[in-house]
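Protocol step 4 of 5: obtain the predicted structure for the target chain.
Materials: sequence only (see below). No template structures provided, no constraints applied. The aim of this step is simply to have a reference model before the mutagenesis design in step 5. Sequence pasted as it appears in the construct record:
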Amino acid sequence: MKAAGNLKVTEKNYPEAIKLYTQAIAINNSNAVYYANRAAAYSQQGDHHQAVEDSLKAADIDPNYSKAYSRLGHAYFSLGQYNDAIEAYENGLKLDPKNAAMKSSLAAAQSKATEQDEVGLKGGAGGGAGAGGIPGLGGLGGMGGLNFSTMLSNPAIMEMAQQMAQSGALDTLMGNQNIRQMAQSYANSGTMPDMSAINEMMDNPEIANMAREFMGSGGAGGAGGAGGAGREGNALDEAP
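Step 4 output (structure tokens):
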């Protein structure tokens, strides 16, 4: 079952790979490799929370299995939980100190954690990404007084905009008539519309769903946001 699952991963058929690894676990639920390989498949299809659970299970079964920690670090990194990723990679490197890929992943997580801290400090008391807000903006509150030059100098905002452009989310967003009119109004006048207009727009279920979907998957911690960290964790283990 494990070998068949590995083959499905190479074919990028991650749902089928997960089914096969699950069958292997049903036969033998005390093998860390099966959980770690399933964690890799979960991460490949963007289900990083499940990858965290499987990686933790693998580490619990075999605390000396370094790949469990690299998988865990990759999953945490992809979720934007950089401090947790750092701890996971450090634990993995204690077991495999010469692992260059894990060292690189640790450095990437440390860099992201520092950047996240800096953005939080710049954003002030409400500057985090809590409650679904945009890092450095403290949610949507107070947008009427937003300084766009400050906003565009925020590296987290620029990274998010780049990800939106690359994923096609920006095209979808600008395809909405209300948002397009708002953007045109800002381009013509240089000022944002008042909060009543913004609130009215956000009451539109279609726009609210777009915002929720993007904030749930498109940020630095989304499925595509790992920035290259944890690549070693995606290599499947061929051990029994």
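Step 4 remarks: The chain has two domains: 2-115+229-234, 124-217. The chain has 13 helices and no strands.
Proceed to step 5.
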